[in-house]
Amino acid sequence: MMKEEIIKAFPKAYSAINEATLLSGFTMASDVFACSLLRTLAASKPGGKFLELGTGTGLSTSWILDGMDEAATLVSVDNDAKFVAIAESFLGNDTRLKLSITDGGTWVEENKGNKFDYIFADTWHGKYLMLAEVLAMLEKGGIYIIDDMLPQPNWPDGHAEKAINLIAYLEGREDLLLTKQVWATGIIIGVKK
Ligand SMILES: C[S@@+](CC[C@H](N)C(=O)[O-])C[C@H]1O[C@@H](n2cnc3c(N)ncnc32)[C@H](O)[C@@H]1O
Question: Taking a C-beta distance cutoff of 8 angstroms, is the pair 161, 128 a contact?
């Protein structure tokens, strides 16, 4: 019977980033199954323009980079310099990656005209804030991915309602074809028509 294990090698930098993450006290680390899916989907966009909102320490970043080809590029945004420094130290020499330490809202405001083939929204912006603006940055055929859509132990009071509203909004978008996966932390994938 099929098992949920990940057989393919993890990204080279992953275990070092994971160790540094555990030491850093970062508590919002991406789930490894979500990361595996991120890598698989990343491989579907050769030469693509990738956007990650919410770098954290670079865990998901390492998986996305591992799925991308040499011609693809990734911009990853986070406002916490301390955590991004970990991503920088392990992934900073990858010329396909641009780490941007800034507020997500400011970044979206300043980059509204840019288009991306793949957006992993893992912070407030592009998920619970400025969602319409971020979806406007998605190319036709582009993939939008979010995780943590099933109740998580670290959700504050009132967050479940926000998640329900987010799902309803995404479902209501005529330009997105969604699949909601009740798997891992709860993942939604949308592709733009
Ligand atoms: C769920 S974590 C990202 C986890 C990361 N993708 C990983 O693989 O572990 C959310 C991130 O959003 C960042 N964040 C919170 N508020 C933000 C803001 N206003 N602008 C940009 N980033 C923000 C936090 O610093 C945190 O790293």
Answer: no
CB-CB neighbours of 170 under 10 Å: 19
The arrangement of strands across the sheet holding 176-181 comes to 97-101, 73-78, 49-53, 116-121, 138-146, 187-192, 176-181
- Average pLDDT for the chain: 97
Give every residue of the chain whose pLDDT is below 50, as ranges: none
Kindly state if the Cβ of 54 falls inside 6 Å of ligand 1.
yes
Ligand 1, atom 4, lies closest to the CA of: 56
Integer CA distances (angstroms), 91 to 47, 75, 103, 188, in order: 19, 12, 21, 26
Residue 75 contacts residue 100 (beta carbons within 8 Å): yes
CA atoms within 13 A on the CB side of 126: 31
Q: How far is the CA of 7 from the centre of ligand 1 (A)?
A: 28
Joined tokens for residue 40: 């698989």
